[in-house]
Amino acid sequence: MRISRGPLQHVFGPVPSRRLGFSLGVDLVRPKTCTMDCVYCECGPTTDLTVTRSCPVDPHAALRELAGVLAERPQVDHVTLSGSGEPTLNACMDGFIRGIRALTDAPVAVLTNGSLMTDDAVVAALDLADVVLPSLDAVSPEAFARVNRPHASLDAADIARAIAAFSRSARPQVWLECVFVSGMNDDDYEVGLLAGAVADIAPERVHVNTVVRPPALPDARPASAVRLAAIAKRLGPRAEVIATPPSSRQRHMGGDEASLVVAMAARRPITVDDVATALGVTRERAEEMLGEFVREDLLTLVPHGGKLYHKA
User: Fold this and answer.
1) Element (H, E) at 220
2) Which H or E run includes 45?
3) Is the pLDDT of residue 243 over 60?
4) Residue-level pLDDT at 245
């Protein structure tokens, strides 16, 4: 199978998301630009560690690309600002959200590590979204450094306070994610500190997560299912361990499926089941497609956790 055009530059999916259903992603930064270098990140190690906001992606080009994908009428649950790093580093994010609103009625979600929510301009842009999904993995400086490996200017307590202020005053729903890495931030002391911060934030939902896909640091190990369940109980009644991606609703992307699959794999490692679910094809057809992409050197195979993942 030959791809008739190159992978999309800014739009990827819809991809099956454990939190957002079928999510059509918009990538607002160049890979991999972030304020942190989290050990568990499925996008790989951070190559540009920064807290300086800029407009690296042409808003008009990204919105034209999004309009083209939406014209193929994919069924999506959310349009999500995420991708190859921290989306709030894009100083034009407010314009992106307004542009998305003009193209679709699908709710807009923003995946963020929360690090720049101390900035009033970032808060104003996030307030335009429907759902904001910040992450908070640690409160103590020691665990914050171990798990998130942040820019030197960042402070975990400041970030937790900023997320709490946003949750109390902003319009969007706040769904907090806490990612636990075995031996790094999952002991009782760290979980207790985090439980206090979660109570102060009072988000609509708390998603308890761990290492699932191949991480930036190969030594980053997942917390056990038993430990995650205990942590969720400690974090309160709104906390739940995130389930697997939806598989009962298969939806067809339409358009140049090959380009869309490669664009998905460029943002995060994908499995055969991810492709089958996203494209609405059989598992056998997804295996055939991915096999062709590997033979054409468009994708590479990465084993992790007893599964085979495909990366661009």
Assistant:
1) none
2) none
3) no
4) 41
Residues 6+ apart with CB under 8 A from 222: 181, 182, 210, 211, 212, 305
Q: Residue 310 has which token pair? A: 């495909």
Q: Which two tokens stand for residue 136?
A: 């908070």
Residue length, the chain? 312
Give the type of residue at 39.
V
| Contact (CB, 8 A) for 69 and 255 | yes
Domain ranges of the chain: 11-311
Sequence letter at residue 6: G
Q: What is the pLDDT of residue 79?
A: 96
Q: Nearest CA to 26 among 96, 120, 130, 126?
A: 96
User: What's the pLDDT tens digit per position in 25-36?
Assistant: 999 999 899 999
Has domain 11-311 been given CATH number 3.20.20.70? yes
pLDDT reading at 73 higher than 50 = yes
CA distances to 64, 116, 172, 290 from 96, in Å: 11, 17, 16, 32
Q: Residue 104: is its pLDDT beyond 50?
A: yes
Strand partners, 34: 49
The predicted structure's pLDDT at residue 246: 41
Provide mean pLDDT across the span 256-285: 73
* Residue 242 region by backbone torsions, left for phi larger than 0, else alpha for psi between -120 and 50, else beta: beta
**Helix 257-267 × helix 283-295 angle, to 10°:** 80
Backbone angles phi, psi at 176, to 5 degrees: -85, 135
